[in-house]
Design a protein that fits this description.
12 helices
């Protein structure tokens, strides 16, 4: 099949646009917080370029402000971002097939990029799937870096209250989830995820439920694989 670079670029850009607005706001919030503890836009750029961990970067700000040592920073960052292990498992074989793009695809697989990647199973004619997923990760990373720089520079000039802005990411996840549910023949896997999340939220509380919910959801989905396959066939 002959691939079209413009089609691939346009497809990736369109898919990444929902992430753009959330990342500009949240990246800006990170940049401002980092500036307030004494680190300018250069630090915001370097951290967003090399760490690129979203919630881990916000944690990093508080750890730097409190003077934590590097070991504690590394351990805390690992635990708060350990959910990405589950994201990677679902894409590891597909990403491996994309040759040289594989390491970068893994590095840029944030919560939001994972949501975008799972929103489509196939690409239109003329679109190179590997390049499209690579570009989605690249665009999302650039959005976050730009947001961080804007926030850091804005922090030097104006005082902005970003209270509650983190809800924009929750809203983005809800939109992506609803879009996936609407596009799938079977809704059972989505309901399983919701059920496991609600149960874990009730048991572990809002601060600790994400990792247990992911573990239980993966286990239930794996155990119910025959039922899910039959359900998907029945909906076709």
């Amino acid at each position: 099949m002959k691939y079209n670079k413009k089609k691939t670029l346009s497809f990736a850009l369109k898919k990444s646009l929902p992430v753009l607005f959330g990342y500009l706001f949240l990246g800006s919030a990170f940049g401002i917080m980092l500036y307030e503890i004494g680190y300018n836009w250069i630090w915001a750029t370097v951290i967003s370029l090399l760490v690129y961990a979203g919630s881990g970067q916000f944690l990093l700000v508080s750890l730097l402000a409190s003077g934590e040592n590097l070991l504690n920073v590394a351990v805390m960052t690992f635990f708060i971002n350990s959910r990405h292990i589950f994201y990677g498992l679902s894409f590891i074989e597909k990403f491996r097939s994309y040759s040289w793009r594989y390491p970068f695809l893994i590095f840029t697989l944030t919560d939001e990029t994972y949501g975008v990647n799972t929103s489509f199973d196939s690409v239109p004619d003329g679109v190179h799937e590997g390049n499209a997923r690579y570009l989605i990760g690249l665009f999302d990373h650039i959005y976050w870096i730009i947001g961080s720089i804007i926030g850091s520079l804005a922090g030097q000039l104006i005082s902005i209250d970003f209270s509650g802005i983190d809800f924009s990411m929750t809203a983005l996840f809800v939109v992506i989830f609803i879009d996936q549910m609407k596009s799938k023949n079977s809704k059972l896997s989505g309901f399983i995820g919701i059920f496991c999340a609600v149960i874990c939220l009730a048991i572990f509380g809002p601060e600790n439920f994400i990792l247990p919910a992911l573990v239980i959801t993966v286990a239930v989905l794996y155990g119910a694989k025959p039922i899910l396959n039959n359900d998907m066939k029945g909906g076709e």
